[in-house]
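[Solved] Which block belongs to which protein?

Original post:
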Amino acid sequence: MSKRKECVAMLLAGGAGSRLFALTDKNAKPAVPFGGKYRIIDFALSNCVRSGIDTVGVLTQYRPQLLHEYIGAGQPWDLDRICGGVRILPPFSCRAGADWYSGTANAIYQNLDFIEQYDAEYVLILSGDHIYRMDYGKMLERHKQSGAACTIAAIRVPMREASRFGIMTLGEGGEILRFAEKPREPESDIASMGVYVFGREKLTEYLIADAAARRSAHDFGKNIIPAMLRAGEKMAAFLFDGYWRDVGTVRSLWECHMDLLGEDPALLLPRGNDRVLSRSENAAPHYIGKGAVVKNVALTDGCEIYGKVEESVLGTGVTVGAGATVRYSVLMGNNTVGADARVLFTVADAGAEIGEDAAVGDESGEITVLCEGARVEIGESFAEKGGEQ
């Protein structure tokens, strides 16, 4: 059986996610729960499957145990293949010059042998911490047609936020003329999504050169892309007009959850054959008790509601007691909100418990975070903010 693959995906999932604070104390950012029944990494993995890419290397590093267990052999995403499929690629130091991944480019460099064993003509590089649905096949076709050495997925962002991203200046044909990583004064609103398609030989060439550069940060946005532009390589942009969100901060994670709500949600997650695939828990249907109030809520199986829940997202197995109020909050799963408690503008990780008559968060609109397994005692008030908003 031939092992050759036209395109291999490399999914960067090793970041610490420090701006998510307590939510990543124990887990890598791609393993953070999302939307009641998913984890963040589900979106990139599902995109690969829907795009016909069946060979995915997942590069892990920071607190990888849960992520490894969650991905397993890849069955939920139909990536349990004898040839290809999903493969976990942690850093290892059994060969000279190898160590912990020191940047996004270095992570790929240390795994060039994984790419080479499939004799892939193209390499798709992804981030494991973004929420979006995308057909990478269309991007690959754009790359082939343009004849570019590298194609970068791009999206328009508000100019006030442009300095947070890698910003591109494009020519009339969509070719990339200039690229600046997080510029103080952006000259355009076209931002990199952190999704790249490279020809394998060209990628290998620049990764080897970058690995030998002592002062390099070994990063695609800071080093590889600028080096290719300086060398005169043809670079193309693939403009994406769908929903995309970098959930790197507590505020952005909360806002992305709020985008699931309403009659016409900004983030629509289809069901059926086009659904986001995940390793879901088996749970009984949710139950809404007599006298309970549920308005504009994304409710997952296994929930029991006896109080009032509005404008919120509840994961599997959440219980809200009688007389309790939950508003503008995200409860990630297996949480208990005691009778007469009040929860406002809060993100509670899995297993966090809120006692009877306790108060978490406030009306300020700033987000309070409860870490995994946290306990707010009976009658206690807690409104510690989640850092960067």
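(Second protein starts here: sequence line, then its structure tokens.)
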Amino acid sequence: MINLPQLKLGIVAVSRDCFPMELSANRRKAVVENFKKSKVDIFECLTTVENETHMLKALKEVKEAGVNALVVYLGNFGPETSETLLAKQFGGPVMFASASEESGDNLMNDRGDAYCGMLNASYNLALRNIKAFIPEYPVGTASEVAGMISEFVPVATSILGLDNLKIISFGPRPQDFLACNAPIKQLYNLGVEIEENSELDLYASFNTHSNDSRIPKVIASMEKELGEGNKMPGILSKLAQYEITLLDWMEEHKGSRKYVVFANKCWPSFQTQFGFVPCYVNSRLTAMGIPVSCEVDIYGALSEYIGTCISQDVVTLLDINNTVPADMYESEIKGKFDYTLKDTFMGFHCGNTAACKLTSGTMKNQKIMARALEPNKEPNITRGTLEGDIIPGDITFFRLQSNAEAELTAYVAEGEVLPVATRSFGSIGIFAIPEMARFYRHVLIEKRYPHHGAVAFGHHGKAIYNLFKYLGVKELGFNQPKGMLYKSENPFK
């Protein structure tokens, strides 16, 4: 996948001047040895920071080594001024963790008191308005701290991505899709740039790519990917032209940014003017690491990119769409899976999910649009969706959103796609999330989230939750278990 940050971790140990510096240095070495087992590279800074002069020296070393995410490790109590100045001047994502004591036999000469030092470090970070990743319990043995660093990796990767991200959009949201509103102030607060364009700009660029010499190569790539699902080969030339148009626009409009995602208009006038629907191209770019959201959903595209950074895998964006019929539940789910009917729902979009995330992808036309635009005739301008059931397995459903008051909110819930045929159309799956009915009512409805949710494949709730906390999300919802009432939930049943 392209369009993703390449993480270069570094670790710096700090030491309070009334403690032996060797204690912190030796504990740092042990952490590095344990972290090497994760197969992720980490630069070990050999300068242990005891004062501001040491801090400047260590900062120079990590910068010269190309470090872009830093672990500040309190091997003992640590100097709160120097260690937090290091975080401030480093300028990238920083994690703080500290050492626990190793043995009751060493408490006379090798006691480090980092348990205490973490309190001062966190207080000083707040005084200096410095964001830092602090693990759930940030004190541990060498192997435990190595595990904490592994938890920092997806968070740091996402932070680097957001700091260098531009969202490019085309067209206003369709009528009656005001739920996908996108107050841009919070994008700027996150460090994300946005470039908003007209559909006319996209159409003009698309027309300049007619007869582009690269089209045959892209068609061949599509044919290989679709295989037996290539049921509408006549539309591939236009789809290839459109794919090249978006990729060229991305390169020409990155500006000062390294990474790009798109939030594009896809109906109702798109089909009549372009002569196809863009769903399959959206799926292909998303599979490359360049999410393209439907219906100019700017925060949907942002959420997809976060999921890509966190999971290092392809994501998708789906409508939280329809209930599972009771007869399907009774015949295919009940007794086979530990979910109630109200724990289940269908996630759907027209055909934007990547082929690698479908059990079997087939090129088709968009059924809903064809009803209005091409009734009772062979589909033409509504061709271009990739349809199929979404692969079963663990998923994380989530969204980062700026609400109507321009406040940053988010939700995250773990669940799974069930191995049950949907008997429907589009890119679609039967999703199961524990306590979904309560989550639907007291988070999705009550907190006014739009109908689009990002889907990461696998359980990544902890990492996404950690990132949202780091970003300063005002209200963070999740699917609360039985016995844990939402604030507005009626306790009387």
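Accepted answer:
You had them paired correctly. Confirming on the second one: The first strand starts at residue 9 and ends at 14.
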